[in-house]
Design brief:
The chain is α/β, with parallel strands linked by helices. It has helices spanning 7-10, 39-47, 62-72, 84-96, 112-119, 162-171, 225-238, 245-256, 258-281, 303-312, 336-349; strands at 26-27, 79-82, 103-106, 124-127, 146-150, 177-180, 201-206, 219-223, 285-286, 293-297, 315-316, 329-332. The protein folds into two domains: 7-35 and 259-349, Aspartate Aminotransferase, domain 1, CATH 3.90.1150.10; 39-258, Type I PLP-dependent aspartate aminotransferase-like (Major domain) (Aspartate Aminotransferase, domain 2). The strands form three sheets. It has a seven-stranded mixed beta sheet, with helices on both faces. The chain has a three-stranded antiparallel beta sheet with strand order 9-10-12. β3, α5 (112-119) and β4 form a beta-alpha-beta unit. The longest helix has 24 residues, at 258-281. The protein is globular and about 55 Å long. The protein binds 4'-deoxy-4'-aminopyridoxal-5'-phosphate. InterPro entries: Aminotrans_II_pyridoxalP_BS, Aminotransferase_I/II_large, HisP_aminotrans, PyrdxlP-dep_Trfase, PyrdxlP-dep_Trfase_major, PyrdxlP-dep_Trfase_small. It catalyses: L-histidinol phosphate + 2-oxoglutarate = 3-(imidazol-4-yl)-2-oxopropyl phosphate + L-glutamate. One of its GO terms (biological process) is L-histidine biosynthetic process.
Length: 351
């Protein structure tokens, strides 16, 4: 603890991401994609002219934003890009959620949101999930500085329909509603089409999951021009060149290859459903998932012990040491072979 730190930094418990092990493990702990990025990405890495790196990148990241605008059927002025969606979220907290009222969110959701609340001195009002571990959209009110949740939610994996989101937006019209769609490509319904009617809706997305590009940091937001301008104001104040030239070229190459994208997504979804069936056969409860991970628990086995048992046998999953989630393991969907190993190992551990 240092006297030099701002009060909010003294209070801060930083977000701790899942372990990135050095040894070769079956890594099912941070929801990365098990398949490589689009082949066009390899070509960029081989052919990108080093001389381009001499110059600053386009401060407006126009080409990448245009590629995203084409993908989502919106105007380029409705797209914002940043270094991973974590950065985009941080800018959104600063731009939209400091009205002196609490920010509303589910009690169980992406654990970065409370960290940002601390960091930016924003009070938080958390609403419990419903009896099915789903985000309770009816709980959100107008009396707040904004609403934020992940859809599908993390780590519970359930996604609400666009219709349900639309009902929320008819009610909460006075503040920004931020929907984090980091996992929406794996079977969730994107809220982006609602942006046209709702100037207060901001949807964030990432290249880290469905585009297999967690190693470069690329995220984005889509919303009304008004909201995008708000983000640009904050961004320009501390990093006027958000995306480096190489990352932009890689992002565009990934967006261009629709076939590769669809094929990887289908494989992940098929493997997820197959894994679900096999784990249910072992007695696990598997929460419904529209994401590239599942949240599971066993009525007779301690999750913490299963975590250790898997780790000792070379398989890394996520165990959350919080009261509500301590019975569960969150398992990212890997390749078919990786999931076979997982199921076979759990079979042994649950005997
Ligand atoms: N939102 C959610 C719900 C996430 O789980 C993650 C990944 N940890 C992110 C955002 C951030 O993703 P990235 O910064 O890689 O885009």
């Amino acid at each position: 603890m240092s006297e030099f730190w701002s009060p909010s930094v003294r209070e801060l418990t930083p977000y701790v991401p899942g372990e990135q092990p050095r040894e070769r493990l079956i890594k099912l702990n941070t929801n990365e994609n098990p398949y490589p990025p689009a082949p066009g990405v390899e070509a960029i890495l081989r052919e990108f002219p080093a001389d381009h790196l001499r110059l600053y990148p386009d401060p407006e990241s126009r080409a990448l934003r245009q590629a995203l605008a084409d993908e989502y059927g919106v105007d380029v002025g409705q797209v914002f890009v940043g270094n991973g969606s974590d950065e985009v979220l941080a800018l959104a907290f600063q731009a939209f959620f400091r009205h002196g009222l609490p920010l509303e969110m589910p009690a169980i959701t992406y654990s970065f949101y409370p960290v940002y609340c601390r960091l930016y001195d924003i009070e938080r009002r958390s609403h419990p999930l419903d009896d099915h571990w789903q985000v309770n959209l009816d709980a959100f009110s107008r009396d707040c500085s904004g609403v934020i949740f992940a859809n599908p939610n993390a780590p519970t994996a359930h996604g609400h329909s666009r219709e349900a989101i639309s009902r929320l937006l008819q009610r909460v019209t006075n503040r920004v509603v931020l929907i984090d769609e980091a996992y929406a490509d794996f079977g969730g319904e994107s809220a982006v089409p609602l942006v046209a009617e709702h100037g207060n809706l901001l949807v964030t997305g990432t290249f880290s999951k469905s585009r297999s590009l967690a190693g470069i940091r690329l995220g984005y937001a889509i919303g009304s021009r008004e909201l995008i301008e708000g983000l640009e104001r904050v961004k320009d104040s501390f990093n006027s060149y958000p995306i480096d030239s190489l990352a932009s070229a890689i992002g565009i190459a990934a967006l261009e290859d629709r076939e590769h994208f669809a094929a990887c997504r289908e494989k992940v979804i098929t493997t997820r459903e197959r894994t679900r069936q096999r784990l249910e056969a072992l007695g696990f409860e598997v929460l419904p998932s529209q994401a590239n991970f599942i949240l599971v628990r066993h009525p007779a086995q301690e999750a913490a012990q299963l975590f250790v048992g898997l780790r000792e046998r070379g398989i890394l999953v996520r165990h959350f040491n919080t009261e509500v989630l301590s019975d569960f393991l969150r398992i990212s969907i890997g390749t078919e072979d990786e999931m076979d190993s997982l199921v076979e190992t759990l079979e042994v551990l649950c005997r």
